[in-house]
Amino acid sequence: MKNKTSRPELKFHFHNPNSPEETVKLIINVFYDVQLPRAKKAIDEALMVMVEAEHAASEKEEKPPPETG
User: In angstroms, rounded to a whole number, what is the distance separating the alpha carbons of residues 43 and 35?
Assistant: First the structure.
């Protein structure tokens, strides 16, 4: 059971002069700016994996099969 006499309930009110659409755009821009470095790093890592895989595949194709006999 909560003891309401020990602390008063806090209420916060914020004034946002922007329309809901403008607020959404601003929040999306903040999220985009924050996540951009992480996204760039993930893209760079994926590209490196692709380049290494292509390089390994091209090395396999260039080697002639061993001759038997």
Answer: 12
N-terminal to C-terminal alpha carbon distance within the chain: 88
Single pTM value for the model: 0.48
Question: Which pLDDT value is given to residue 50?
Answer: 94
Contact status, residue 43 vs residue 37, Cβ threshold 8 Å = no
Q: What radius of gyration do the chain's Cα atoms show?
A: 29
Taking only the tens place, the pLDDT of each residue in 1-39 is 555 568 888 998 888 899 999 999 999 999 999 999 999
The candidate with the shortest Cα–Cα distance to 32, out of 56, 24, 59, 61, is 24
Hey, which bits of the chain come out as E strands? none
